[in-house]
Each structure stands twice: as C-alpha cells, then as structure tokens.
Amino acid sequence: MKLDRITINPARMNGQPCIRDLRLTVRRVIELLATYSNREELHHEFPELEDEDIQQSLIYASMSIDDKIIDLPASYETVA
C-alpha cells in the first residue's frame, strides 16, 4: 500500500512521520482520534486534516507495531 500522505523530513518535526509535510505528526493524529469521539468536531478543530490523512495515519501506525504476545498479570481484567 502506498502511503503518499505520510512524509518524513529530518528537518521537520525531528524527522517524525508527518501528514503531507505539515507540522502534524502521525502520532498526534492518533492522539486526536482518541481524544475526539466526534469526527465532525475533529475536522472543525483541524480543518487541514482530511479523511485520507486519518486513514493513512492509522495504517502507518498499525504497520509500526510488532505483533508479539505480551503476558498480562493475572489481576488484569478484560472487557467482553
């Protein structure tokens, strides 16, 4: 998959992956998605952020995470 909206520039944002060479990092987009439950409100606060930017940020983040098994403590509760 081509992630043409994700840019990495060592001279911008310390080389962190950004959206379309803006000063908006992929990490920040993921944080915003966790913070704003309403996409309309998110788009109102960040009008430069397009749906495709969000989609590619999620794809990039998922590709950056290793699939590994983590042992959880016995007291850990899961939500069913």
Describe the structure.
- By secondary structure, the chain is mainly alpha-helical.
- It has a single domain, classed as Arc Repressor Mutant, subunit A.
- The chain is 39% helix and 5% strand.
- It has a two-stranded antiparallel ribbon with strand order 1-2.
- The longest helix has 14 residues, at 51-64.
Beta-strand level of the residues, as a percent range?
5-15%
By CATH's scheme, which homologous superfamily applies? Winged helix-like DNA-binding domain superfamily/Winged helix DNA-binding domain
Distance between the termini: 33 Å
Query: Helix and strand succession?
Result: EEHHH
Topology, element by element:
Elements: E1 6-7, E2 18-19, H1 26-35, H2 39-45, H3 51-64
Antiparallel strand pairs: 1-2
Structure described in brief:
The protein has 80 residues and is mainly alpha-helical. It contains three helices and two strands. The chain has a two-stranded antiparallel ribbon with strand order 1-2.
